[in-house]
Design goal:
The complex is a heterodimer of chains A (282) and B (462).
Chain A lengths: L1 H26 L2 H31 L10 H23 L5 H17 L18 H29 L8 H8 L3 H33 L8 H21 L6 H18 L15
Helix pairs in contact in A: 1-2, 1-4, 2-3, 3-4, 3-5, 5-7, 5-9, 7-8, 8-9
Chain B lengths: L6 H6 L2 H20 L6 H5 L4 H9 L9 H30 L17 E5 L3 H16 L3 E5 L2 E8 L6 H22 L1 E8 L3 E7 L5 E17 L5 E12 L2 E9 L4 E3 L2 E10 L5 E7 L2 E8 L4 E3 L6 E8 L8 E8 L2 E8 L2 H7 L3 H4 L11 E6 L5 E9 L3 H20 L3 E9 L4 E9 L3 H21 L2
Antiparallel strand pairs in B: 1-20, 2-3, 3-19, 4-5, 4-18, 5-6, 6-7, 7-8, 9-10, 10-18, 11-12, 11-17, 13-14, 14-15, 15-16, 19-20
Helix pairs in contact in B: 2-5, 6-11, 7-10
Classes of the chains: A mainly alpha (282), B alpha+beta (462).
């Protein structure tokens, strides 16, 4: 399948892009930064094309559905959403340091999808439970939310790396100097979290409406549902605490990192527990 | 007793409490996913000492999500949410209703302005330049003149201050609706073999049943597979009866429930009815003389009543030749044993002469009859989730309101800008202040834009 081949190559394109972002940060040369953005854009374009091709191919097989139906496709879409959001943030903030922290996450998701032996990359037909118009809206909102939380996580890591600027000019200091100011990071963490939170809420609501159509109940405390609620509660705590200026700066960055751990468990960890969302196991 | 001084009121209206409750609820939910719950807990309790099991049971750790303390936790969250909203809503409403005016009391005159500079232009020129930008980005502008001072004020997105209240209202509707649905509705399960009908629903989580005011019959269950063997479609054709009268026929699919008299039916399960796996047909010449549903150990009489057939074994796949039954025939002429294969036609075609070599495989061994297994006669049962949930419109409305509120928060923010211009003879002293209820970057961008415009114009007019 040509689309799986392209997606395999995109993995390496994102790795190259990550190296360029890293070089841009370490060397402080604008050339590497522009190359990094260009590479990421090229990878993103190729990935979008491959996703469309995969979508069309599924119709040619007579089992047409959006490419959002198994673990492989979800990883690919996650990486796509991460790069999309990152490119928007880069364009809006005109700062490339975030790339060195976010692009490797997209690369890892792609690498896991393409190289992990346990993951089936074939187009599979939709089982009855997934044959619903809610599939697209549920999966798209959830994964865009995960991508926004990935952004908040990377910004949180940057916040801790930034630390306090000391006057002496070492290499490490210069890198720190390139990272945006703590106040700007705090603001960006907040904005990514708000965006992720709105999308996650939409994801939970669409999932719950869907569950009502498919199984006759909105909520069954299945592990995936419960973990999405745990994630929602952590980010709700973060947003409320910032609103009353209870947590700002360090605790906010700290919570963005913990929230992402919950996201990862909701995405991967839950598959270890029994439940209704078992389609993602292979 | 005034609201503000009441210790209980201030405790429950605190956002710190909200944050604490969020974290405690999250932690309890984590426990609920790592400790096996309900039926799953039994394998764990078998390995622990009875004392520990008793403690865990008292703490309701094997049914956290339905435990008293978890319910109290959720109740506290709701209570906190209501009190917080009641506490803050009046001031938000006052702020919303307030007249637009540049000199109004909440103008942050007492704060340090965000931008302060002097231009060489006369106040009227600077004012009209800034007003043009403000108008383009904010719409309407309010102006006042007080002696040598003139003030400009503009705002947009005032209603976004209500976003949080709208979200909270939505959440209250969802939770209220869910509780109402739990109290007024029911959730249960029925299992129906093809051709069977019932009006009894087994209620979930209890041993109780509920009688429906109508009968439901399963006419047919059908399972379709993709070429690779994964399930494609589970389909139940059902009929509803009032008394003896057929009222409606419907098809229930996964993701496609059927509603009848306010009660919904969802495709949940299926299986084959035990003892109905195969049918045996007996022919004499071309004429079918008997047909019998069979299971191991069953026996039946052949026409005339002299000979009897006993099913000794039923095998799903015998010697890789497909389904087969071993029969024992007792008759006045003597007893016989042989095998009957469902696919005997194909087997003989592939192995000519087989029936002569192995008479045990000849379905016509007991003359003048020929036995056969009928294909595709397994009788299915369908399992349907049955529920009544009168809260559906409330929950749907709540979810829509919550999402609208969240979008309001996400896409709109309340931005306000105050500009004060003072004639200094030589030029104009300008101070600009901006406030935004959410995103400081956006307002900073607006302030920069205004300041640059005023200063650049000052440069160019030199």
């Amino acid at each position: 399948m040509i689309h799986t081949l392209i997606l395999g190559w995109v993995t390496f394109v994102y790795f190259a892009s990550f190296l360029c972002y890293l070089l841009a940060m370490l060397r402080g040369k604008a050339f590497w930064g522009r190359l990094a953005t260009g590479t990421a854009l090229a990878g993103f374009a190729a990935q979008t094309l491959a996703l469309i091709m995969r979508w069309i191919a599924s119709y040619k097989l007579g089992i047409g559905h959006v490419p959002l139906a198994n673990f492989y496709e979800s990883l690919i879409f996650f990486a796509w959403a991460v790069i999309l959001l990152y490119l928007i943030v880069e364009w809006r903030t005109r700062n490339r340091t975030l790339g060195a922290f976010v692009v490797p996450i997209a690369f890892l998701a792609m690498a896991m999808a393409s190289l992990s032996p346990g993951i089936d990359n074939r187009i599979q037909p939709l089982i009855p439970a997934l044959q619903s118009n809610w599939l697209t809206s549920h999966v798209v909102t959830c994964f865009l939310a995960y991508a926004a939380f990935t952004m908040a996580f990377a910004l949180g890591v940057m916040f801790f790396l930034k630390g306090e600027n000391s006057p002496e000019e070492t290499g490490w200091q210069r890198i720190r100097g390139l990272i945006p100011a703590p106040e700007a990071l705090d603001e960006l963490i907040y904005q990514s979290t708000v965006m992720g939170f709105v999308l996650l809420t939409l994801g939970i609501v669409t999932g719950s409406v869907w569950a009502h159509y498919a199984w006759g109940s909105y909520w069954s405390w299945d592990p995936k549902e419960t973990w999405s609620l745990i994630t929602w509660l952590i980010y709700a705590a973060l947003l409320h605490a910032r609103l009353v200026r209870l947590w700002q700066g360090r605790p906010l960055a700290f919570m963005a990192i913990w929230g992402f751990a919950a996201v990862l468990f909701t995405y991967f960890g839950v598959n270890l527990l029994p439940g209704l969302h078992t389609y993602l196991q292979s | 007793m005034s609201k503000k001084n009441n210790a209980i009121w201030s405790f429950f209206s605190s956002v710190k409490l909200t944050v604490a409750l969020f974290i405690v609820t999250a932690f309890a939910s984590v426990l609920g996913t790592i400790i096996p719950q309900q039926e799953a807990a039994e394998t764990l309790t078998g390995r622990l000492s009875p004392g520990i099991v008793q403690i865990l049971k008292t703490l309701q750790l094997f049914n956290i999500f339905h435990s008293v303390w978890f319910t109290i936790l959720l109740g506290l969250l709701c209570f906190n949410l209501i009190i917080c909203s009641l506490n803050r809503f009046p001031s938000a409403l006052r702020q919303f209703r307030r007249q637009r005016s540049p000199g109004r009391p909440d103008a942050p005159d007492h704060f340090e302005p965000d931008k302060q500079f002097v231009t060489t232009d006369p106040p009227a020129v600077t004012a009209s330049r800034l007003a043009a930008i403000l108008e383009k980005r904010y719409g309407r502008i309010e102006r006042t003149v007080e002696g040598t001072k003139s003030l400009l004020y503009a705002e947009k997105g005032r209603f976004s201050n209500f976003g949080a209240y709208i979200v909270h209202l939505g959440i209250m509707l969802i939770l209220g609706g869910a509780i109402a649905g739990f109290l007024m509705g029911f959730e249960g399960y029925i299992e129906l073999g093809e051709g069977e009908s019932t009006n009894t629903v087994y209620l979930k989580g209890t041993k109780d049943t509920k009688k429906l005011p109508f009968m439901i019959r399963c006419d047919r269950f059908n399972l379709e597979l993709y070429d690779d063997g994964t399930p494609k479609r589970y389909r139940s054709d059902i009929s509803f009866f009032k008394g003896e009268r057929l009222v409606r026929r419907e098809t229930v699919l996964v993701n496609h429930p059927v509603q009848f008299e306010g009660i919904r039916f969802y495709q949940a399960n299926y299986g084959t009815v035990p003892g109905s796996r195969m049918t045996m047909a007996v022919r004499q010449g071309r004429q079918k003389v008997a047909e019998q549903g069979i299971e191991e150990g069953a026996d039946f009489a052949l026409p005339g009543g002299k000979a009897r057939v006993k099913i000794l074994r039923l095998v799903g796949n015998f010697m890789n030749l497909g389904p087969a039954a071993k029969v024992y025939i007792s008759s006045p002429e003597g007893d016989l044993q042989f095998w009957i294969f469902q696919y005997i036609g194909r087997i003989v075609q592939e192995n000519p002469g087989l029936l002569l070599q192995m008479p045990m495989m000849n379905p016509g061994l007991f003359k003048p009859y020929v036995f056969s297994l009928e294909p595709g006669v397994a009788r299915y049962f369908t399992g349907l989730t049955v529920n009544q949930d009168p809260s559906l419109p409330i929950v749907t409305a709540g979810a829509s309101i919550m999402i609208l509120g969240l979008l309001g928060i996400f896409f709109y923010e309340h931005r306000r800008i105050w500009i004060s211009l003072e004639d200094k003879g030589e030029g104009t002293s300008v101070s600009i202040t901006g406030r935004c209820n959410r995103n400081d970057t956006l307002i900073r961008r607006d302030l920069d834009l205004l300041a640059n415009a005023a200063e650049q114009n000052a440069e160019s007019s030199k």
